[in-house]
Amino acid sequence: xxxxxxxxxxxxxxxxxxxxxxxxxxxxxxxxxxxxxxxxxxxxxxxxxxxxxxxxxxxxxxxxxxxxxxxxxxxxxxxxxxxxxxxxxxxxxxxxxxxxxxxxxxxxxxxxxxxxxxxxxxxxxxxxxxxxxxxxxxxxxxxxxxxxxxxxxxxxxxxxxxxxxxxxxxxxxxxxxxxxxxxxxxxxxxxxxxxxxxxxxxxxxxxxxxxxxxxxxxxxxxxxxxxxxxxxxxxxxxxxxxxxxxxxxxxxxxxxxxxxxxxxxxxxxxxxxxxxxxxxxxxxxxxxxxxxxxxxxxxxxxxxxxxxxxxxxxxxxxxxxxxxxxxxxxxxxxxxxxxxxxxxxxxxxxxxxxxxxxxxxxxxxxxxxxxxxxxxxxxxxxxxxxxxxxxxxxxxxxxxxxxxxxxxxxx
Length: 411
Prior knowledge:
The protein is an all-beta fold and 411 residues long. It has one helix at residues 98-102, and strands at 10-12, 14-20, 28-34, 37-42, 47-52, 60-66, 71-72, 76-79, 82-89, 119-124, 132-138, 141-148, 154-161, 168-173, 181-186, 208-216, 219-225, 229-233, 241-246, 256-262, 267-272, 286-290, 298-302, 336-340, 346-350, 358-364, 384-389, 394-399, 403-409. Strands 7, 8, 9, 10 and 11 form a 5-stranded antiparallel β-sheet that branches. A 4-stranded antiparallel β-sheet has the order 1-26-25-24, with no helix packed on it.
């Protein structure tokens, strides 16, 4: 339901329209906009919700679809009348202290018999108000973390199968969405523990794990948390191969999360996620890479760090999380970039000059009225998680304590 608006802490070039607590489940993570509806995955409520946003001033939560026991559905993708929803072990039940989730290899620490659902659920959303599951692609192991799917035959998933230290790239063949199949896969050398590989990094400290890959043409731009960035040739979807790899942690604090290609300009926007309270993992950045030579990507600048106040002392996480990913049909730009910064809200940047990016807009929601995060350290501080910008500049912004804000960007 639509809620009374809490005035934003800061707003410039964004106009507040409405707010939703998503049917009293404000723990919002990734969202997808699809034909006047929003699908949102929940971080703690174990399922996903469907919200009717045909009236932007009065969003209506239509349905909550619960996850199976001990399973989370935090990420999802919508295209071609399909909704793909991840199934994986609810890792907050495994790592109640958040820092333990981000420190070291997850796969090496998950033991015992699986009592959760692992794979990808595929729904028909030709009627977006009523998703209808048509298939399930299972995987032995912890499950699937995040997806990239913009339509067509193939989807791209970060998957933690049995025998691997952490999440790797696996490609899904959707030639028949009612009978999906796994196709090719790729991992960093050292991750295939089941076949005798050993990490050449400190696996107790650094977490080499695919967050997700964004695919443009036949290239997958894959972010590996503390393992950095890879460009992969996926022209053969059954056998991805390495084009180039870069890693800047150490000396920087890791957490490489999203790599957004701007193919018309041979640029790549790469966000490192802040994963610890009070800058305990260092100040994270959003980097710009020159990719004119894909075999030699070069970092040329960083986007400005929010500085209106000392966000490092505001509480909880401060720093990048998600980027608006230029999905087909959304607001697609190679000069304006949208990024969430957790306790510093959402930002818009102009990268017309890639050597001198500048901030051109900001929306920092007001503090949430309650704390739904059950983990230690919970406090009523915003943690802006995801942003999707419609082609008309309407933006949907999630927060895993505060629900969903709908705003308009005056670009």
